[in-house]
Amino acid sequence: DAKTTQPTSMDCAEGRAANLPCNHSTISGNEYVYWYRQIHSQGPQYIIHGLKNNETNEMASLIITEDRKSSTLILPHATLRDTAVYYCIVRPATSGTYKYIFGTGTRLKVLA
Amino acid sequence: ETGVTQSPTHLIKTRGQQVTLRCSSQSGHNTVSWYQQALGQGPQFIFQYYREEENGRGNFPPRFSGLQFPNYSSELNVNALELDDSALYLCASSWGGTSGHNEQFFGPGTRLTVL
User: Fold this and answer.
1) How does pLDDT run along chain B (115 residues), one tens digit per residue?
2) What are the CA-CA distances from residue A1 to residues A25, A66, A92, B88, B98 (Å)?
3) B66 contacts on A by Cβ (under 8 Å)
4) Looking at chain B from residue 11 to 70, which residues have their Cβ under 8 Å from any Cβ of chain A?
5) Closest CB from A97, A99, A102 relative to B42
6) Between chains, do B42 and A34 touch, taking CB under 8 Å as contact?
7) Which residues does chain A have within 8 Å of residue B55's beta carbon, measured at their own beta carbons?
8) Are A50 and A64 in contact (CB under 8 A)?
9) Which residues contact B88 (CB under 8 A, 6 or more apart)?
10) CA distance to partner chain B, nearest, from residue A55 (Å)
11) pLDDT at B24
12) Local structure of B83: helix, strand or coil
């Protein structure tokens, strides 16, 4: 399974965009990039996923580099409620039965 | 649509005891995965059940065992509890088909403390 590396922590001012990077240099061609977040020891919450095109939903945008070796999760207008640990995960696209390999994630603190 | 639920929310046990944690999967999901999350760490995969059979196991000893029932709910059993078993135990359900974007939906977790 591909591994991911993320910065340990980041701060972001409320109302500004939060850009969270993830390196997945060993990703395979059939592996998706998934982002989850975990707020204060609750269960991780799905945010967004993508294969090679940029993706956007109501929560965030995902920018994947052309070589797919890294990606950036963008929270366009961070709020205090976005303070959480953000995990970047890669997984095969073709199977629903798989395990997630979590790293230690990025602890994002949104500052008032 | 009912989300993933877990019980109990919190549990305190003593070393050597046995514990059973329960998980109800989201409606329509046939796959349940269990993770252990120690304080300050990311979740670690324990095992997965697909249609009532174990379908993959992480690096956990045999005293961690599980079951999945016909309604796709699941149990995690831990025997001979050790202090290091203190953690948040997370259950995640998903649709185990082969058609792409089958993300896992996590429950709120069970906080186990072993004294």
Assistant:
1) 569 999 999 999 999 999 999 999 998 888 999 999 999 899 999 999 988 999 889 999 999 999 999 999 999 999 999 999 999 999 999 887 655 567 889 999 999 999 9
2) 12, 20, 9, 24, 18
3) none
4) 31, 33, 35, 37, 40-45, 48, 50, 55-56, 58
5) A102
6) no
7) 97
8) yes
9) A41, B36, B37, B109, B110, B111, B112
10) 14
11) 96
12) helix
Q: How far is CA A36 from the centre of its chain?
A: 6
Tell me, yes or no, if B4 comes closer than 8 A to chain A by beta carbon: yes
| Beta carbons within 8 Å of B77's beta carbon, 6+ residues apart | B18, B19, B20, B21, B64, B65, B66, B67
Helix, strand and coil percent figures for chain B, each rounded to 5: 5, 50, 50
Residue range A6-17, pLDDT digits in tens:
999 999 999 999
Q: Which two tokens stand for residue B51?
A: 């249609």
Q: Which residue has the tokens 């079951």?
A: B67
> Contacts of residue B95 in chain A, CB cutoff 8 Å?
96
Q: Which two tokens stand for residue A19?
A: 């850009």
